[in-house]
Write a structure and sequence with these properties.
The protein has eight helices and twelve strands. The protein has helices at residues 15-18, 76-79, 100-103, 118-125, 140-145, 216-221, 231-246, 257-261; strands at residues 2-14, 26-38, 41-45, 67-69, 92-94, 113-117, 161-165, 173-174, 181-185, 194-199, 205-210, 250-253. Bound molecules: zinc ion. Zinc ion (ZN) binds next to loops.
């Protein structure tokens, strides 16, 4: 097995988005996504931003105060090529949730089965008002911003080969049946969020939290994130993660800039 850590550039942002009541000071965060190679298959966990959102072309109209900044080389379908993997080589995309900075490139992996929670998929079409701006779709943003997304092809969702998971009924979904790549249902930040446990051969076990745990502050101090759909569920996830950490699992937070620096980045990998 190989586990690569990538970042699709950064989000220029502000602290309060990541830590509730965190204020409006500048806070720039990585946009992680991961490539796992196991049993001859290529698996992505998340995909980073959409190509048309480089320098915030779409989001400046959507999520106030947030601007994706990335180079062509950092765009996920290009970035994976530096370790010899082409977009058409990806067999599975496991997407933590459908927010713009995680699902932005899912339609680029033409041969991939995209594994998402059904609750998340359905919610994108009818989000609550406070969550509307975090999703790319051709209906929801118009309700809040009067910005018509139709025709921008922000996410070509109809041509994606979806595989839906059913919440708690599918909790700890074991992709290969060998306990090495296990999907945890972690609703809270969004209604259909999921995180990924990866058990490597030599370098130990990693829990890729994604936005179920934005930053170390939310992990260590129990602070809520600025953007959260279900507060009790969010806090329960943190308890689960702490339990896993106690068993020896390395916790990988979703957007912590300092935490991110402590990991190996592609083309280096964990094995
Ligand atoms: Zn999110």
């Amino acid at each position: 097995m190989k586990l690569y850590f990538f970042s699709s550039g950064i989000l220029e942002s502000y602290k309060g988005l990541f830590v509730q009541n965190g204020g409006d000071s500048e806070f720039n965060v990585p946009v992680p996504f991961f490539l796992i190679q196991h049993k001859g298959k290529n698996i992505l966990f998340d995909t980073g931003n959409h190509k048309d959102d480089q320098n915030g072309h779409l989001l400046t109209r959507l999520l106030n105060g947030v601007k994706p900044v990335f180079t062509d080389d950092e765009y996920a379908p290009n970035a994976i090529q530096k370790v010899g993997v082409k977009p058409e080589d990806i067999d599975f995309v496991i997407v933590s949730h459908l927010h713009h900075d995680h699902a932005g490139a899912i339609s680029e992996f033409k041969n991939a089965t995209v594994i998402v929670q059904k609750a998340e998929f359905d919610y994108v079409r009818r989000p609550d008002y406070f969550m509307t701006q975090a999703y790319y779709n051709d209906e929801a943003p118009a309700k809040v911003t009067n910005f018509d997304m139709k025709g921008t092809d922000a996410n070509d969702l109809d041509n994606v080969d979806w595989y839906f998971l059913d919440g708690w009924n599918d909790n700890k979904f074991d992709l290969f049946g060998d306990g090495r790549i296990v999907i945890y249902f972690t609703p809270g930040h969004s209604v259909g969020h999921q995180s990924l446990l990866v058990r490597t051969d030599e370098d130990g076990d990693f829990l890729l939290c994604a936005d179920a745990c934005y930053v170390k502050e939310t992990y260590n101090q129990g602070a809520l994130p600025g953007l959260v759909a279900l507060c009790p569920e969010y806090l329960q996830n943190i308890k689960t993660f702490k339990l896993l950490e106690k068993t020896g699992v390395t916790i990988v937070t979703g957007h912590d800039p300092d935490d991110w620096k402590t990991f190996k980045h592609a083309p280096e990998y964990y094995k």
